[in-house]
Structures are given as C-alpha cells and as structure tokens.
Amino acid sequence: MRPRVARPAPAWWNLVKSFAQAMAMWAVFFAALPAAIVAAEPSLGLDAARVDPGDAVRLVAAAVFALAGAGGLSTLTLLAVHGHGTPLPLDTTRRLVIRGPYRVVRNPMAICSFTQGAAVALWLGSPTVLAYVVCGVAVWQFLARPWEERDLAERFGTAYEDYRRVVRCWVPRWPPYRARGRPQR
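Now predict its structure.
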C-alpha cells in the first residue's frame, strides 16, 4: 500500500485535520488501550506486578506526558504548515519537512508518542502497559518506519536520502542538519 498524498489545502485545514487525528490517536493509544490492558491484568494474572506510583510519580508522569505531547503537537504543526499535509499515511505531506526538531532527529513525533506511552505506563504503575509501549516501538521500528522511509525516498529522492544518511532515527545529532544549497529555519 502506498500512502495517499494530501490534496492541496490551506494550512488551517491541514492543522484542523492533524489535531483531530492526534486527539483520536491519543484517545485510543493513551487512554482506551491502556485502560483495557489494566482491566485485563487480573484475569491474566499480571495484576501482582502493578504498583501504586504515588502522587509524586504521577506528577512526574503528567509533566512528561504534557511535555512530550507539546513536542508531538509542534512537529505535527510543522508537517501541516510546511509539509502541506498531515502526519498520517492517508493524507501525507506534499513536501519534505526538514526543520525544527526534524533537523536533529528523523522522527521526533514517534519519540514524543512513545515517551507519552511510557508516561501513561508510569501513571498507571503498570509494567504490562509499558510492555505494550515497547511492542509499539518494535512495530514502528520494524514495520512502519521502513515502509514510511521507502515512500519518502521515492517521493523526495536525493533530498531525503542525503537527510537520512546524516540524521539518525532515534538518537539526536548536533549540530542540526543543514541541507546542501538551502538555508534551514
């Protein structure tokens, strides 16, 4: 399956679609699925591993969730405004975005999302939810990322290949990447 490139649209419409997608994803992946996992733990004999995280740990978890969420929403905004599309493959960007955090790491949105998932696991005190997040990382790394990168290489050619060669997927680089021949903001 090949991603569907977004139709031309005003930036505000791409932002509305992107934020709606993000809220739906958060509702499913950070609320509904973790709640279902926690509810299933007793019947699977996994509830003994759960711990009461306490108020201080929950405060840290909430702060980490909020900070990672803000990072994810800022990358989403870059894709909507400068990429002329959304983060989802059904409405993907029309332009390659290499600015902001994308100059330092190839997929800051994935890093933010998995950090949010870990914060949810910490909030719930559930190693099972943390295992769910680790499974999500593996699915993204071994299935979604290669598929997405193949598409980006096909659509953006040398510009993407040069970027991918220099900017790592998970580990930030310093100094930030600068594409040959064009200034970055």
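The two ends are 33 Å apart (CA to CA).
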